[in-house]
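Saturday, quiet lab. Running sequence design on the structure tokens for the scaffold JK sent over.
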């Protein structure tokens, strides 16, 4: 960029130039030269441009090399939420990125005074984010807000980087984690439905959108097919899902016919649902300290003393701003919750986001029209609270007050001995008359 300055008094013409650079010792991603008299200004423009392009190119390819092994992302939240809320959500996005195996280089919150619908933030700010990404060698921009197809397109016009949003990241995690046929079909369906409206852009952007993270699952070849073929595929998957759901329906009926009470464990992702199922029924469902360890429903029998039995099911965890397409996809899995006689709402009471998570789960249960099901709130990970009373009495009080408010039972799924009060309460709910009050 060059500007010409004409000084009115001495009628001297000056020129000043500036250029983007990959990075600079000063830390600025650009260099501004001093102004010079235009008359003596000399520049070999072709040589200047080719040197600059070479250096930009090498910094870009450094970023691309990383992409082969590990994706490196800048997280961006452009929002008008309260700062605290935005930070919470962004922290969770970091967790999601970690789960997806993406390294997070930086996280930026933008709270624009004026909302530019093209980029979710002002164009100037958007450019700054892109420059920052280049400097840090990022391969990916992940937005905490859902991007419309048009927004992805405008942002992609500003940058070579891949641009995805929270929904796409979640879809990607689901695609990696789906194990059963059911799960795989549901995830691919959700991915294709998410993709379809975004397929209107130019081909280049599409392949950029769909490589690597955010593009796992349907696979490159399928994604290069046209929309029509995607629609056909969606129709086929929907038929398949229907078929699968008939099988599931039969299993459900069998279960209901068996006449045993059904207890479904629901809750936010990573609350410890599978750990609780394992502890209650001495089984070995996969658990992990990453989000969305479970995608498929597991069902086990829990035996109480005196030959009493209930069926316990564990299912996919909930998360805030669950993409509508995913919610739809998992509807059939979540349908099983309709059969439950009791919902155990399991809460990780040691997370700083406990209140928000309880609220989110309640909202989702309402959306699934499960609001009226008998429910028992269970605070898990009580072991992590030891010492909190001394360390942070305020937070300790807050958790105690919350647990009273929800009539919660405190347990630690990791410690089977702590489950006694929960077992007693379940027994009391199902066989009220016969529980010995002593
Ligand atoms: N300290 C502690 N950790 C626990 C407890 N219960 C579960 N965890 C840990 O919490 C993490 C998540 O547990 P999971 O059982 O996989 O959680 P989940 O709710 O099934 O998670 P998703 O299937 O991902 O939704 C694991 O690392 C568990 O070891 C507990 O009582 N105390
Ligand atoms: Mg689980």
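Result came back. Writing it out in full:
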């Amino acid at each position: 960029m060059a500007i010409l300055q004409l000084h009115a008094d001495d009628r001297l013409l000056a020129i000043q130039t500036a250029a983007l650079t990959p990075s600079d010792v000063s830390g600025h991603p650009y260099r501004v030269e001093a102004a010079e008299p235009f008359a003596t200004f000399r520049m070999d423009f072709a040589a200047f441009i080719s040197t600059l392009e070479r250096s930009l190119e090498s910094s870009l390819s450094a970023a691309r090399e990383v992409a082969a092994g590990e994706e490196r992302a800048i997280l961006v939240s452009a929002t008008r939420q309260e700062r605290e809320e935005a930070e919470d959500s962004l922290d969770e996005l970091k967790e999601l990125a970690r789960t997806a195996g993406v390294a997070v280089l930086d996280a930026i919150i933008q709270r624009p005074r004026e909302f530019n619908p093209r980029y979710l933030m002002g164009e100037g700010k958007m450019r700054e984010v892109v420059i920052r990404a280049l400097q840090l060698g990022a391969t990916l921009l992940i937005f905490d807000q859902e991007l419309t197809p048009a927004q992805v397109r405008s942002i992609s016009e500003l940058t070579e980087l891949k641009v995805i949003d929270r929904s796409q990241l979640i879809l990607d995690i689901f695609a990696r984690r789906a194990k059963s046929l059911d799960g795989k079909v549901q995830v691919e369906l959700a991915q294709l439905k998410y993709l379809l409206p975004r397929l209107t852009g130019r081909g280049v952007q599409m392949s950029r959108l769909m490589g690597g993270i955010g593009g796992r699952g349907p696979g490159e070849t399928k994604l290069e097919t046209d929309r029509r073929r995607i629609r056909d595929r969606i129709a086929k998957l929907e038929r398949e899902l229907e078929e699968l759901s008939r099988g599931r329906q039969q299993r459900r009926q069998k279960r209901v016919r068996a006449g045993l009470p059904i207890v479904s464990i629901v809750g936010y992702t990573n609350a410890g649902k599978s750990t609780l199922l394992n502890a209650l029924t001495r089984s070995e469902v996969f658990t992990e300290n990453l989000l969305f360890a479970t995608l498929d429903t597991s069902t086990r029998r829990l035996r109480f003393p005196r030959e009493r039995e209930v069926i316990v099911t564990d299912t996919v965890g909930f998360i805030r701003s669950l993409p509508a397409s995913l919610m739809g996809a998992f509807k059939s899995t979540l349908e099983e919750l309709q059969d439950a006689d009791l919902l155990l709402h399991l809460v990780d009471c040691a997370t700083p986001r406990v209140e928000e998570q309880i609220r989110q789960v309640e909202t989702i249960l309402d959306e699934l029209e499960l609001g009226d099901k008998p429910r028992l709130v269970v605070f898990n990970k009580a072991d992590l609270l030891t010492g909190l009373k001394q360390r942070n009495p305020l937070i300790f009080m807050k958790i105690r007050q919350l647990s009273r408010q929800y009539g919660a039972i405190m347990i630690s799924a990791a410690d089977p001995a702590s489950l006694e009060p929960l077992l007693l309460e379940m027994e009391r709910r199902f066989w009220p008359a016969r529980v010995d009050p002593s």
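Notes for JK: Residues 260-434 form a domain with the Rossmann fold fold (CATH 3.40.50.300). The CA atoms of residues 273 and 437 lie 29 Å apart. Ask whether to fix the surface positions before the next round.
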